[in-house]
Design a protein that fits this description.
The protein has 97 residues and is of the alpha+beta class. Helices cover 31% and strands 24% of the residues. A four-stranded mixed sheet has the order 1-4-3-2. The longest helix is centred in the last third of the chain and has 20 residues.
Amino acid sequence: MKRVIVDYSKLTNDILDLLVEKYPSGYGYRDIITFKNAKGETIRAVEVTTEDTCYLVKISLKLEETMEDYDADADNFDDVYDSTNLEDIADESSYDY
């Protein structure tokens, strides 16, 4: 399995989805992995995995804010389109301008 260290500024939507799914209420002390990188710096990260990759996402205040904002955006979208029937959602072409 491939291990990838990712900074919050380089997170993709797929990795954010994994983070929010695994840590819906945020991560706790027990979720944090501490290790030394190749430069000897201490890194703190949380782990999310796919079938072939283990992502170690560096922890920072910005990571927490990014996760909260991303989750809030997803919640807002769900509130706007609460219907499970896609035909209930108006198509732009149906509007008269």
